[in-house]
Amino acid sequence: MVSRFTSVPDIWKSIFEKSKQPILLLSKQKIVACNQAGVDFFELDSFQDCVDLHPSELSPEYQPDGQDSFTKSQDMFAKSKELGAYQFYWVHLSASKKLRRVLTTLTDISTDTQEIFFAQIASLNCHKPLILSLAGRLNTGKHKESIAQPIEKSIDYDLLHQHKSAIDVSAIVSKTDVAGRITYVNNLFCEVSGYSRAELLGNTHSIIKHPSTPRSVYVDLWKTIKQGDVWHGVIRNKRKDGKDYHVSSTINPIFNDSGVITEFISIRHDITKLYEQENILLLKNSDLETKLGNKNKLIDELDTGQYSTVAIAGIGQLSDIQRIYSHRDYLGLIFNIVDFLNKQLVDGVSLYRVSDNQFAFLFKEGGSTDKFEHWCMTMTGLFNHRTFLIDNIRVSLSIKLGLSCTVDDTCYNNASLALSFADKHNQTVSTYQKNDNLQAEIITSMAWTQKLTQAIKSQSFFIFGQQLVDINGAHYSTEVLMRLKENTTSEYISPFLFLEYARKAKVYDLISEIVIKKAFDFCFSTKKRISINLEQADILNDHTCQLILSLLEKTSCGELITFELVESHSLDLESKRVLTFIEEVKRHNCLIAIDDFGSGYSNFNYLTILPIDILKIDGSLIKDIVHNEKHFAIVKAIVAFSHALNIKVVAEYVASKAIFDKLAALDVDYFQGYYFDEPSCLES
Asked: Are 649 and 642 a contacting pair, CB within 8 Å?
């Protein structure tokens, strides 16, 4: 067992092994050997069970004087090293959790190369009260020092241990001296704070102080306990990892026999979960910026049955303001709006903020629907005729309301639908239960969602093509068009009827990718020039973009493909994504066209900023060009402007020879329409 200490004579090995007193050998304050008496004393299976343990690990957390075992053992090692040997009272803890009172003699027998301590343990459990007077001196050959130590008289240490253990299990305990330096912490304190005992002892509680806790709290705390009174309160602390925790604290001064404060003991309980639950409830039910009830709170209130009507208010301009102005300016405007809306409330009406740019009003039961509608009209009228200040600028805002009087769990959703209807049809107030058109729109939208989803699964989308010809009628290219095949009638449906529903149903991207793949397959197999329509939404979709670029790489068909950018959907000239996409496809020798030019608000900057190869004039200008002089003049100007920039021009909707002749006279480059070709299926 002690073979590692080769300098110890055999006679000492024999004494070590045969001694009836427990003996420990320690190196670097860790147990390296234990005799059989020690194994029996600690109720171990073998001496290996205690090897490499610190002696405090075979002890209770604290000693009878209140000092924790680890810290006190450090002092005992230091005393032994200083005096050569030191004798002291100790309490050990056996494997079966029995407290063992002992008198320990710790002797420093270190060599020049190795630190070694020899510990002899004398059991005192037979002494029932613990009254022992040791006077005398231990002669070590190096020092002669008094080793007498008083021990507490008539202490029922077992009972004390049980009491303190009960507190330690449930409470965070610490002690400080009168200067506030920590002299004791229990395990729970270390666990909750994240600091080790070594990091805490000798430090002050400022190590866990949270910067947000007001200084006045600590001023009141110290004033109270220094006067000898007990302080109670809740303190927000900070763990070592920076996380918050909250404790309910009781700090009690401890007096000596002369009535002088010698230390402070603090007993705390962790109430972090209570605070978290309170914060969760706050987050769940309140808008943190305006402190109004939020959507969750609104739904909860509706569930109580106290309310019969809800109105949701949308302020469209707030989205743009939120993007343009700083968050501080935006919040200032929100607070002004809330102040205005609060002033308009009448008895039985409550205000909520259900999203960044939407508010809601709840109306208690008892009033008529007409009364609520009248209040909504009055309030929106006042709102829409006043201005609000933001960043020293007066702005006009418009509010729209969706009202629902359905007393069921669809009330909120119905109000939202009514608001959508009001926004779409430019109505100030729309009431769900009186709006048959709204209900019909909802049913239609749901039907299309189901039909489009099923069409994707059943592969019911097909590509059609319509030719573009030159002035001599020779084929130049084929525009790829999308069609949906109706399974019951086998008819093909134009995207004009379903594209908006596809966007609402979030399936537009899937349909677009189907058409793009089929268009590339057609081009690759026939080696014919084609054009593919793209919206900005396609370009901004990463998956769609990657699909196009990978197909260009795979098929090497770039020189046969023209991408038509739909002008009517307002291309963002500032978008780097759009410019980057154009540059990437042009590296594959693709052409870029602007489609539907002249529809709505046309931006001639497209022609100067973007590398455009082809411009397609919208059919609304072409179809009556024979009789409409203004349209003729506009088309003439567009053709001249385009040719000056070396851009080819395509005229759509050429339905007759008269239209063709008129356009040919203007030097239009290519023509498309029923006069030359009707769309036909490109798939066999």
From this structure: yes
pLDDT, tens only, 407-437:
666 788 888 888 888 887 788 888 876 555 6
* CATH number attached to the domain at 171-275: 3.30.450.20
- Two tokens at 72? 């006190």
Q: Kindly tell me if the per-residue pLDDT of 350 is higher than 60.
A: yes
Rg (CA), the chain: 44
Q: Under CATH, which architecture does the 286-434 domain have? A: 2-Layer Sandwich (3.30)
**Bridge partners for 269 per DSSP:** 248
Question: What one-character-per-residue DSSP string does 592-606 give?
Answer: EEEEEETSSS--THH
pTM of the model: 0.45
C-alpha neighbours within 13 Å on the C-beta side of residue 457: 6
Determine the topology of domain 448-681 in CATH.
TIM Barrel (3.20.20)
For residue 146, the number of C-alpha atoms closer than 13 Å in the C-beta half-sphere is 6
Instruction: Enter the tokens of residue 98.
Output: 């029995």
Cβ atoms of 166 and 186 within 8 Å: the answer is no
Per the rule left: phi > 0, alpha: psi between -120 and 50, beta: everything else, 476 is alpha
For 199, list phi and psi in degrees, rounded to 5. Answer: -75, -25
Query: What CA–CA distances, in Å, run from 41 to 37, 77, 86?
Result: 6, 21, 21
Nearest alpha-carbon partner for 649 in 631, 669, 633: 669
SS3 610: coil
Alpha-carbon distance of 475 to 482, in angstroms, equals 21
Q: Superfamily assignment of 10-156 in CATH?
A: PAS domain (3.30.450.20)
In whole angstroms, give the CA distance from residue 302 to residue 363.
10
| Domain residue extents for the chain | 10-156, 171-275, 286-434, 448-681
Paired strand residues for 648 = 614
pLDDT of residue 575: 66
Structure tokens at 136: 């005398």
Torsion angle in degrees (nearest 10) through CA of 209, 212, 214, 215: 50
Please tell me if the domain spanning 286-434 has the same topology as the one spanning 448-681: no
Q: For position 365, what pLDDT does the model report? A: 61
**Within a 13 Å sphere around the CA of 213, how many CA atoms are in the beta-carbon half?**
20
pLDDT (mean) for 272-291: 70
Contact 599, 567 (CB under 8 A): yes
DSSP state of 557: -
Map residue 628 onto helix, strand or coil.
coil
The answer, yes or no, to whether residue 651 has pLDDT greater than 90, is yes
